[in-house]
Amino acid sequence: MTKQIETSIRIKASSETVWDILTDFEKYPQWNPFIKSVKGEVKEGNNIEVRIEPPGAKGMTFKPKVLAFKPQKEFKWLGNLWVKGLFDGEHAFFLTAHKDGSTTLVQSEKFKGILVPLFSNMLDNNTLKGFQQMNEKLRELAEAKVLESAFNVVKP
Gene3D superfamilies this protein is in (predicted)? Predict the structure, then answer.
């Protein structure tokens, strides 16, 4: 059984600005409503520890393997629930820079395994909302950063 969730958002900021916020994992607890923490050395082939808390659902901590970590382009991991094949998720962030200086962020996850039908409703509701909330907050932060630098605003 397979299922995919995908969200997309256009951000009025460079891919560098978006990437800097997306990969500043230490600050996730301060702003990220969906992914509460990412710990470990984020490098292709490494296992990291990720804590997600979808809105209206129980949070979970898991240890996915980093499949891709390409600055300003792609960050992807593969995690499983308990054992491989039951409920596997390939989570990905893709950034596309545009000529006008904006960036499109695509956040997606492909789910595979025999338990996917059991979690389908939660994925369509809670997980999708979590993606959307994270994308919106990331856009707010990136666009605020652009405004700050444009007006040389110094925050106390």
Answer: 3.30.530.20
What is 46-95 written as a DSSP string?
-B-EEEE--TTS--EEE-PEEEEEETTTEEEEEEESSSTTTSEEEEEEEE
Which tokens go with 97? 């820079």
Using a 10 angstrom Cβ sphere, with 0-12 exposed, 13-18 middle and 19 or more buried, the burial of residue 104 is middle
Instruction: Read off the pTM.
Output: 0.90
Report which of 90, 89, 91 is spatially closest to residue 119, judged by C-alpha positions.
Answer: 89
Q: Which domains, from first to last, does the chain contain?
A: 2-149 (3.30.530.20)
Non-local (6+) Cβ contacts of 42 within 8 A are 23, 25, 48, 66, 69, 75
Tens digit of pLDDT for each residue in 71-93?
999 999 999 887 788 889 999 99
